[in-house]
Amino acid sequence: MEEQERPTHMPRGPAKRTGPGFLNPAMAPARTRSVMLLTDALEHEWLVKEQRPIRALDALCATGVRIRRWRNEIPGELQHRLRITANDLDEFALSWAKMSHAKHPPHTPVEHEPEGDRHGQTSTAVFDNGVHFQRLDARMAMVDAAYQWVDLDPFGSPIQFLDAALQSLSRTGVLEVTATDTAALTGSSPSSQARRYQAKGLVDEYAHDDAVRLLLGTVATTAARLDKVVTPLLALFDGHHVRISLLVRTSKSEATAIRKSIGWRVRCEDIPYRFVQHPAPEQLPNASGPMWIGPMWHKEVAGRMTEERALELCHPKPEDIDRGREFGLIWNDEDIEYSSREVRRGVRYIAEAADLMSRDHLLLSLDALPRLCGVGGAPKIEKLIAALIESGHAAARYPDLEPMLVTDAPFETVVKVVQTTSGSTN
After folding, report:
1. In Å, how far are 66, 134, 174, 175, 360 from 249, measured between CA atoms?
2. Are strands 82-87 and 395-398 parallel, antiparallel or unpaired?
3. What is the radius of gyration, based on Cα positions, of the chain?
4. Within a 13 Å sphere around the CA of 340, how many CA atoms are in the beta-carbon half?
5. For a Cys-Cys bond, which of 70, 79, 149, 180 suits 241, CB 3.0-4.6 Å?
């Protein structure tokens, strides 16, 4: 867009909102992961079976970058199974999305026959080369039809949209939620946190993980009120926002049992923290919650999100770049390398940490280890991970802007390994 500067090198944080057609380049990694998750659902059929279609809604599509990436980067042989609806209330942004879609059409042409809506009537939706554009309030758009995939990416908190998003899903569906109100989620703004999420936070090395778990817990409890149960597929703190992807199913019995996955993180003296369902009064000053305390990722799904797969799906091929140059794309070798780095960054460390993040684990900040382990300095994170694996435990780097590692080793083992390795040359 002419109003926004062209990104130069690895943009981070919230973009400056310069007009109604808002686009944040720093959200590119989240869009990459969305392409990969939707592709994985189509390829491995864990959402719908027997080659059936998936109806996907981008409820707040803005300039349509996400839906156009769905249509361009998901393999062509899967495109006929996608029914994409792009919705936004901003007329300027939606017109920009339509214009971009028309001027730069997807590589794989797709036409869809009319389908029945959730009320049993034939839908009047008109698909333009695989995408149906509509201008509605997001809440109206979500309750008006049933979808297997809903992406909810508001400017700020998603709280006001959650009920409608969950109700719009079929009996089994995927909900992807973005929250950019990280001050509230991390506890940096205690009043906003209490008001929006009915929670209490501590601002320390676990603030980012707390933010992710708090959003997970909020969506899980909201879903339970609607007789739905959530299974996290992937949940991350990514710079200036929290992004969670959940499989949502209708099940009264499992929704009732969800309270077992809601609790508090208590900072302790013997170990960095432990999860409890209800902190004792004396623990409350050192506790954050209530939040999700269950598994954070899905082992198989997250385990397939490798850098190689991301490049295969999302990095432009030479013929794509040549085609773009015909339309005025100005890209040199540095731009191509920049694009490759950004695609890799979007999934870095995810596959390696998938197993641990799908079960009980200990999350540790590398910067906090000298204090916790009584050493002068922490070893390099790669050396520490290798030493933990050599000791017979699993360990991996956790994807966060700060150096974090995840392991299934007891904390006393971590202390011994740190004390042994920190004395060597880093």
Report:
1. 24, 27, 9, 10, 23
2. unpaired
3. 22
4. 11
5. 180
pTM confidence score: 0.92
List the pLDDT tens digit at each of the 426 positions of the chain.
445 555 555 555 554 555 555 567 778 999 999 999 999 999 999 999 999 999 999 999 999 999 999 999 999 999 999 999 999 999 999 999 999 999 888 888 888 766 655 555 556 677 888 899 999 999 999 988 999 999 999 999 999 999 999 999 999 999 999 999 999 999 999 999 999 999 999 999 999 999 999 999 999 999 999 999 999 999 999 988 999 999 999 999 999 999 999 999 999 999 999 999 999 999 999 999 999 999 999 999 999 999 999 999 999 988 888 888 887 888 888 988 989 999 999 999 999 999 999 999 999 999 999 999 999 998 999 999 999 999 999 999 999 988 999 999 999 999 999 999 976 444
Query: Rounded to whole angstroms, how far apart are CA atoms 391 and 413?
Result: 9
